[in-house]
Amino acid sequence: MTTRIGEIQAALRDEHLDGWLFFDHHHRDPLAYRVLQFTAGSMVTRRWFYFIPAHGEPSGLVHKIEAQTLAELPGHHTFYAGWKELMDGLSRLLHGAKKVAMQYSPNCQVPYVAMVDAGTVEAVRSFGVEVVTAANLIQYFESRWNQQQLEAHLDAGRLIDQIRMRAFSHVSDSVRAGSRITEWDMQQFILARFRENSLFTDHGPDVAVNANASNPHYDPKQDACSEIRPGDLVLMDMWAKLNGPEGVYYDITWTGYCGSSVPSDIENVFTVVRDARDKAIRFVTDSVEHHRSLHGFEVDDAARAHIRAAGFGEYFFHRTGHSIGAEVHGTGANMDNLETHDDRRIIPWTCFSIEPGIYLPEFGIRSEVNVFVGDERARVTGEIQNSLLLL
């Protein structure tokens, strides 16, 4: 057996599960290949199953015309052609198992894990097997960083924090000089700095002024963007990672105001957002320090309660944070009790954003930091904005 199989079986025993059933058809579940650490040995135009029991040898079930699909994986593999052979083979694969994990999420509460179709879950249940979510298992094998990834994240963070400072300074210099500058210009400015520093991003960044900043996924275009002028609020959301196999994302949002003093309504909203962010951070750091079990939805509650108490609840309409990894939105626990009820545990050696926001018709403000949870403590991995920048 490979080391990963042994790790999976130990995790299954910790979760009190009889096994983990992997399934794919037409490469619809990339998680299966990443967790099992294999490349299909043939085309995947037919269904395959691979069952890892908590104890004993794994086994697979593949179609006869794609017999090499699971060749890299250990264990006994059987073959089918017709649908009756498939169902009989699946029944034998699961013989003796009562409770198994699959890439399934009850009520699709964790869409990142909901890769198996309802019909396949029904087929497994027809054998008297209880299907439970593999969400915690996926997080354990997909979302934990190693030391090299943590260092890569910190290195990327130092570069991006410098680029963020340069970007806001460039806006300030341009506005004060009366030079024309747009959101799209600043997006291109940031992307050029990313390239100079060997940083990769899959899209973005987001540079938005005033009401545009109230669209959390705003993306300026050269022919559809706003100029940045005196009296404007400016939001910059940037995310990138170092090029290389250990690269993981660093993802931040800062805001500034083009003027010598900030209007009271903007200052008030920034203060509420900042304090909500800090309450969520403290909730995480205190929980980790005191070895309390910590779940994604609880972190969302900590930030959202403060914004609601300040009277802005309806204007905070996204989750408080997301998992961060090799993809900017990773497969670990999200800080979410709004869009979903994410009850996954937050486990050591994972990272996530905390980014509450308030989005009014006239302007929006978000403040985003990254939090890394280690074995004994949690910490913000980069600089923290405590007051609006004056540009």
The name CATH uses for the topology of the largest domain is Creatine Amidinohydrolase
Low-confidence stretches: none
Tell me the major beta sheet: 6 strands, mixed
Mean pLDDT: 97
Secondary-structure-derived class: alpha+beta
Number of strands: 17
State the end-to-end distance: 60 Å
> CATH architecture of the largest domain, please?
Alpha-Beta Complex
Strand order of the largest sheet: 4-3-2-1-5-6
- The structural domain count equals 2
**CATH homologous superfamily classification of the largest domain:** Creatinase/methionine aminopeptidase superfamily
Number of helices: 9
- Highest CATH level, the class of the largest domain: Alpha Beta
How much helix is in the residues?
A: 25-40%
What sequence of helices (H) and strands (E) makes up the elements?
Answer: HEHEEEHEHEHHHEEEEHHEEEEEEE
Task: List the keywords.
391 residues, alpha+beta, Creatine Amidinohydrolase, Chain A, domain 1, Creatine Amidinohydrolase, six-stranded mixed β-sheet, 9 helices, 17 strands
Lay out the secondary structure.
Blueprint: H1 3-14, E1 19-24, H2 30-36, E2 48-53, E3 59-63, E4 76-80, H3 83-93, E5 99-102, H4 118-125, E6 130-133, H5 135-142, H6 147-177, H7 183-196, E7 199-200, E8 206-209, E9 233-242, E10 250-257, H8 264-289, H9 296-309, E11 323-324, E12 350-354, E13 357-359, E14 364-366, E15 369-373, E16 378-380, E17 389-390
Parallel strand pairs: 1-5, 3-4, 5-6, 10-17
Antiparallel strand pairs: 1-2, 2-3, 7-9, 8-9, 9-10, 11-12, 12-15, 13-14, 15-16
